[in-house]
Amino acid sequence: MPPLLTQVARTSDSLPLVACTTATHTLPVTSKHQQDAQQLMKRMTTGSPNKMSIATGNYCFYYMARDNLCFLTLCEESFPKRSAFLYLEEIADLILQEMIREYGNDWRNQVDQAARPFQFIHYDPIIQRKQREYREQRPQARSQLNEDLNEIQSIMRKNIDEILNRGEKLDQVSNISNDLRSKSKDFKWGTKKLTLQARLQQYGPMVVGATLFFIILYVKIFHIGF
């Protein structure tokens, strides 16, 4: 199934600007999902990670921050992670392109000065068209997008209870993520250092012996020449 819920909000104060759902009888978007989406938006700050996936039961929220806007979607847990973030990238491109087309260079001011919720709800058809594209995609095509996970694996994944129940700000999560990356780099450097030491112990005597051999050979040839 394609993304079931998509919201765009202003990052500075979490004001919702656009919202769209594509729920079905078998996969409904409940009021709890919508409340969770709003709460997640409110947890965002300027120091939050740019991307994150947040598990909630058999579903997963994905969000991406860009140009003082937060793009959030809800998908089935089985929906490929790479496809979810690709979807958000495409939604962001389309929304920003439409804002620039409509407001020109003043589009940022229009976002900053928006005073009422869902002030840009007229962009809803843009999201609906993109959701329809993903709904019509073959599963094989979506699964191929999931093969390249080098970047996506680095995006932090949290459980929604860890954020909402503990009142955890997403910038705190970002600090944890940065600490983990720092420790990972230290570990990798330590591993490389140990590997280098092991190779020196293994091949060092051979290198020293070979060097001495060539020095002695050079000295002998030098003396013979004179």
Automatic annotation (TrEMBL):
Ranges of residues in domain Longin: 7-127
* Gene Ontology MF annotations: SNAP receptor activity
* A Pfam cross-reference name: Synaptobrevin
What are the V-SNARE coiled-coil homology domain coordinates in residue numbering? 141-201
The record lists the organism as: Fistulifera solaris
Membrane spanning residue stretches: 203-222
> Would you say which domain of life the source belongs to?
Eukaryota
Question: Which family does the record claim for this protein?
Answer: Belongs to the synaptobrevin family.
The compartments listed are: Endoplasmic reticulum membrane; Golgi apparatus membrane
Q: Does the keyword Flavoprotein apply?
A: no
* PANTHER family (alphabetical): VESICLE-TRAFFICKING PROTEIN SEC22B
Its recorded name reads Vesicle transport protein SEC22
